[in-house]
Amino acid sequence: MNDVTTFELxxxxxxxxxxxxxxxxxxxxEGDIGALPDHARVMTTLRPGIVKVERPDGADEEYVVxxxxxxxxxxxxxxxxxxxxxxxxxxxxxxxxxxxxxxxELALPSGTYDETTIALRINDYRDLAHMLxx
Length: 134
Known about the structure:
Blueprint: E1 5-11, E2 14-21, E3 23-28, E4 31-35, E5 42-46, E6 49-54, E7 60-65, E8 68-72, E9 76-81, E10 84-86, H1 92-106, H2 115-132
Parallel strand pairs: 1-9
Antiparallel strand pairs: 1-2, 3-4, 3-6, 5-8, 6-7, 7-10, 8-9
């Protein structure tokens, strides 16, 4: 049995983090997932939220993600996020930008988006702002 899993966080801009972890908590679209070493293989989409990483030394790291997906294997937890920042960098302006981008999608011609999905995403962003206290 492994004592650690490799955690990696990637965005379209590149790799944001890669290091060993004891546990990774992921905001899955169907509910939160706790990924431990030797976890069964799972793939999930992400909802906007906070990825929490417990490092082997006991320190915790947190990242705010706007969505994306995650792949969990026995040896690695990979989070591929649309947008992500360390929690300390998740300002009100960051959340407002996410909401504005989603609202711009609603301005597109009908049939080019799923209005319900975008409305839920906007609600998730507002919940995230509340969780972050921004």
